[in-house]
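A quick aside before the break. I want you to see a complete sequence-to-structure record at least once, exactly as it would be stored in a machine-readable document. Don't worry about memorizing anything.
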Amino acid sequence: MDSEVAALSDIFTITAFEGVVAGPGFSLLSVFTAPNQNWIPEFAIAHGEMMMYADGRWGHHKYSRWPQVYSRNCFHVACIPSRPSTTNGPSAVLWHTMTSDDWVREDCSVTGLGFLAKERMKEVEDEPSAAISRFSRCRCRDKQWIQVGKLLVVCLYHVLDRLRNITASTFIVISLAAHAQRLILELAGLHQHTVMGRIKSQEDHRSEVLGVLGAHTSDPSVAPVLFRAGVPV
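That is the input. The structure line, written in tokens, reads:
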């Protein structure tokens, strides 16, 4: 995971529950703050059923693109990269918004069916092997995360096989391609030894904010730990 030096000259005077930016809360008496970011995300609150949009994503509930509430059981979600890597991490195709231009009609007996465009499919196919390789080299020995990683790999293989071999409508192909992006990014989040190393070391990394999604929380035992580790919070 790449890190960036936070452009906050007074970050060492800020605590996890203070903020350099603030936004409206859920009522007139509350606000949301961020001690190591320059923006406040709109929170993904489920008032009803989640909806998949035309780009195959779930809006603010898209946990591979948008900060979610912190969960101890899904810690890796907060570690998903927030942007393409300039070294050996996920590439820009995983942030590409799929559209009908990425779908190509197939000449067959059923009209309205096709595949993901060859150029786009090639870009998507190039990502899993690198992501799986990074995960396999990960120093994490926690059985829980290893099992999650194995499940993601199996799901990813199924999605790619479906994209390669079965024609479908534009929306189905776009949603499958977006799902492949999501699985690869989540797998990248499991490659979390940088974050875990910072947390276990007890060292102060507040000025070295990582390029990951981070999370939002009101838990007084969680916010200081993430803040000290340089995780957006």
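Two observations worth writing down. The beta strands are 3-5, 21-24, 31-34, 68-69, 103-105, 114-116, 208-210, 215-216. The radius of gyration is 19 Å. We'll return to this after the break.
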